[in-house]
Specification:
Pfam families: MFS_1 (PF07690). It is found in: Cell membrane. It comes from Kibdelosporangium aridum. InterPro entries: EmrB-like, MFS, MFS_dom, MFS_trans_sf. By secondary structure, this protein is an all-alpha fold. It has two domains: 13-194, Growth Hormone, Chain: A; 266-486, MFS general substrate transporter like domains (Growth Hormone, Chain: A), CATH 1.20.1250.20. It is 74% helix and 0% strand. It is built from 23 helices and no strands. α20 (394-431) runs antiparallel to α22 (452-476). The longest helix has 38 residues, at 394-431. The protein is globular and about 65 Å long. The relative contact order is 0.13.
Length: 515
């Protein structure tokens, strides 16, 4: 493609939109499933008569499976074709959904959620690869906006649907609901998506997979164990965490020497890609970590039902729905930096309000802050990812998409664990119990009329202090965002990832990384 493309060439044609609809139908399952389950965790703890520390593995096991399978997706997209891979991902996700709905104890539920995660982990990056290949690099911002639709439906529909199913039907239907969606998606993928040519020439980096996938899983496992173990000094925390770091370090050292590594480190020679990865990492840690706290605040401190908690989360999704389509088009025209920075300012403004939250903070104030944060999320998430992909060729899009997905899932899971650790420790300190019992003690005290007022105020203060840490992390995200591209890029015919694309923002001197 050249800069002399005819007028209107940037618009998404009917063929691309048809492919987008099919991809959205598949990816919406995985995103909805995550938000649906978060609202249902307390109901699941009661159903299986287990502690909150144990029931968290219903969510953590899913995230571990995502982090484990994502590194394989880039190679599998090249080797087998994205259409075949997407169909396999849907089948695995459906199998996990049906079995999770049939679970007979907490162990079986966690195991089946892991199977579900193996399919879910491939859906998003494979879908992103299908979309970017269909549209081309010049329209990647618009593509990301379209693919962001499931990310809007998740925050809006997921908690509401999950709350209604848990309160009125059965927790099992939070998994069974995926079956009709998945069957329809599978049929449409088979009929609509064009068959792509596999590229069997590259040898699969099996040693790299053995190092990177278990390394990510072990690191997240160790971090997630901190609340239950009571500190970082316990063997079940530091041993898997150090083992994971060693495996990841070994992978990085080896990837520099082999011809076809599982994750192509040469991509990081591209300035835009490196900066986008750094910004995405901080964003995922802060925002997705905080996302766990919002429904928990409504359920624990305010005593809302699961359905009401889901409804109260809707303003955030509505705010994102308003800005995300506009942000994608603007990122293509004026550059991601000029879109992402105002978005981060909005998120910071909303988060500041939550750092002052109490047991009786007016709902209008809470909902307004969530709406403002949603506006910021819609202007931030997809432009960050499009900044990483817009100067790459189709040959490298699959691996670049995989790398971005690894960053988002791994750091999002770590951020969630960090926020859980901080909140658990603060609650434990407020109620004078071990760390792993903090949330249970708070729940019991709040439900006791004799201690309700004191307990609710103490728990709210713990949430406010935790939100301060989320605010710090999102503020740090502003630093790499300052160096995102400030204007649209000219697509070069040179190799992707060479870092030679020049920033067209007048008066700006690009900061060169990795040269």
């Amino acid at each position: 493609m050249t800069s002399s493309a005819p007028a209107g060439a940037d618009k998404l044609d009917a063929g691309v939109l048809k492919i987008a609809g099919v991809v959205i139908l598949g990816t919406v399952m995985a995103i909805l499933d995550t938000t649906v389950v978060n609202v249902a965790l307390q109901a699941l703890a009661l159903e299986f008569k287990t502690s909150f520390d144990t029931i968290q593995w219903v969510a953590t096991g899913y995230m571990l499976a995502l982090a484990t399978v994502i590194p394989v997706t880039g190679w599998a997209s090249d080797r087998f074709g994205t259409k075949r891979l997407y169909m396999l991902a849907i089948v695995l996700f459906l199998a996990g959904s049906v079995l999770a709905g049939m679970a007979w104890d907490i162990t079986s539920l966690i195991v089946f959620r892991v199977l579900q995660g193996l399919g879910g982990g491939m859906l998003m990056p494979a879908g992103m690869t299908i979309m970017t290949k269909a549209a081309g690099p010049q329209r990647v911002g618009r593509v990301m906006s379209v693919l962001g639709v499931p990310m809007l439906l998740g925050p809006i529909g997921g908690p509401i649907l999950g709350g209604w199913l848990v309160d009125e039907v059965s927790w099992r239907w939070i998994f069974y609901i995926n079956v009709p969606i998945g069957v329809l998606a599978l049929l449409l993928v088979w009929r609509v998506l064009p068959a792509d040519d596999p590229q069997p020439g590259e040898k699969f980096d099996f040693p790299g997979m053995v190092m990177l996938s278990p390394g990510l899983a072990a690191l997240i496992y160790g971090v997630s164990n901190i609340p239950a173990a009571g500190g970082v000094g316990e063997v079940e925390v530091w041993l898997p965490a150090i083992g994971g770091i060693v495996l990841i370090g070994a992978f990085l050292a080896r990837a520099k020497r082999v011809a076809n590594p599982l994750v192509d480190l040469k991509l990081f020679a591209n300035r835009n890609f490196s900066i986008s990865v750094l910004a995405t990492a901080f964003f995922a840690m802060s925002f997705f970590g905080a996302m766990l706290l919002f429904p928990t605040y409504f359920l624990l401190v305010r005593g809302e039902t699961a359905l009401d908690a889901g409804l109260l989360m809707a303003p955030q999704g509505i705010g994102a729905m308003l800005t995300m389509p506009i942000a994608g088009a603007l990122a293509d025209k004026i550059g991601p930096r000029k879109v992402v920075l105002p978005g981060l300012v909005l998120i910071v403004a909303g988060m500041v309000m939550f750092t002052q939250v109490g047991a009786d903070t007016p709902y209008l104030q809470l909902l307004g802050a969530l709406f403002v944060m949603g506006l910021g999320m819609g202007a931030t998430m997809m432009p960050m990812m499009s900044a990483a992909l817009q100067t790459l060729t189709q040959r490298t899009v699959a691996r670049a998409s995989t790398s971005m997905s690894i960053i988002q899932q791994a750091f999002g899971a770590i951020g969630t664990a960090i926020m859980s650790i901080i909140l658990a420790a603060l609650l434990a300190g407020k109620f004078g119990v071990p760390t792993q019992l903090g949330q249970i003690a708070a729940t019991q005290a709040i439900h006791d009329p004799r201690t309700h007022d004191f307990a609710a105020a103490a728990a709210a203060d713990a949430f406010a202090s935790t939100f301060v840490w989320a605010l710090i992390l999102i503020a740090v995200c502003v630093v790499p965002a300052l160096f995102l591209p400030g204007a649209r890029k000219k697509v070069s015919s040179g190799p992707a990832g060479d870092g030679d694309h020049q920033d067209e923002d007048e008066g700006t001197t690009p900061v060169m990384l990795g040269h």
